[in-house]
Write a structure and sequence with these properties.
This is Metallophosphoesterase. It holds the Pfam family Metallophos. InterPro entries: Ap4A_hydrolase (IPR050126), Calcineurin-like_PHP (IPR004843), Metallo-depent_PP-like (IPR029052), Ser/Thr-sp_prot-phosphatase (IPR006186). Helix content is 35%, strand content 13%. The chain is built from ten helices and ten strands. It has a six-stranded mixed beta sheet with strand order 1-5-6-7-9-8. Helix 5 packs across helix 10.
Length: 304
């Protein structure tokens, strides 16, 4: 894996901090009057499956929009293609915890390259893809991740649709959630990235103030509807993903970033003794995979 020099790493940290300062934490999208809106669950590097699903849905790249709930990388071998995916003009993504963790690692770890070399070498949590990137490619991808919002509001014919990765904190309405994001409230940001309390507690009361929410993060065999929210994440052990029509449609705050970067570094150290070099990421059973579309050698998601 190509390493950053000390000067390159310091420059990157300044750039990531600047991007975080100037990028909005919530982005609002107007109604798509020309075509359809689609939402996909955690991609985790499965960009061939995304492209196949787009073909099967008759996705029109000049009219339709594709919204992602985050977690674009890790587990899937195609994770290095995330930057190419985000560059497509019809793609609108929010950040997931995997993007956030990778940013945090570079911001707070004394030697992120050493940690990533270990994680990549043993393919821990499917992170072997990082070794495919040059240092400039990794820097550009991190900057794209740092610019991703935490949540989106999308206007549709049935009202406002929310898109995020984790969840809105229990007992909080959408207005307060948005205010918390904009204010940089650490607990709200953390819940938006990693929250699972609603599902753990069987809380299906929904979120007042929003027509529907599409979220990811928590694994399910198929999309699951909860009151005013829809969870579109497939089985987490797979790099596969599902695609669905969205019919309803100060200084930066990095929640728990030191905890996260230390946790990744700890995993790298422990993985040397607890993981076999042949450790692999899991795959969804064939019966649950999306059917393959015709060969598409000119897919805009293809690279290297």
């Amino acid at each position: 894996m190509e390493r950053f020099t000390r000067a390159q790493l310091e420059k990157l940290r300044l750039e990531l901090t600047e991007i975080a300062t100037t990028s909005p934490r919530i982005v609002r999208q107007e109604r798509n009057r020309a075509g359809r809106d689609f939402v996909i669950g955690d991609v985790h590097g499965a960009y061939d499956s995304v492209w196949n699903a787009m073909q099967l849905a008759g996705f029109a790249r000049t009219r339709d929009r594709l919204f992602s709930v985050g977690d674009l990388v890790d587990r899937g071998a195609g994770s290095h293609r995330a930057g190419r995916f985000l560059a497509q003009p019809y793609v609108y993504a929010v950040r997931g915890n995997h993007e956030a963790d990778l940013i945090d690692l570079h911001l707070d770890n004394d030697d992120p390259d050493e940690t990533l070399e270990v994680l990549s070498r043993i393919n821990f949590n499917g992170m072997g893809w990082i070794a495919k990137l040059t240092a400039p490619e990794r820097a550009e991808l991190l900057k794209r991740f740092a610019a991703l919002p935490y949540a989106m509001e999308v206007q549709s014919t049935r009202g406002t649709v929310g898109v995020l990765h984790g969840e809105v904190p229990r007992g909080m309405d959408w207005e307060d959630f948005v205010a918390g994001l904009e204010d940089g409230d650490a607990e709200v940001l953390e819940s938006c990235l990693r929250g699972r309390e609603r599902l753990k507690r069987g809380d299906a009361r929904g979120v007042p103030g929003i027509g529907r929410i599409f979220a990811g993060h928590t694994p399910h065999q198929s999309p699951r509807a909860w009151a005013t929210s829809t969870r579109s994440t497939p089985e987490q052990s797979s790099p596969n993903c599902r695609i669905g029509l969205a019919r309803r449609s100060r200084s930066p705050t990095w929640p728990s970033r030191r905890v996260c970067s230390r946790a990744l570094a700890k995993r790298a150290r422990s993985a040397c003794t607890t993981r076999s070099p042949t450790h692999r990421s899991e795959h969804m059973p064939k019966s649950n995979r999306l059917p393959r579309a015709a060969s598409t050698p000119h897919s805009p998601l293809s690279c290297r």
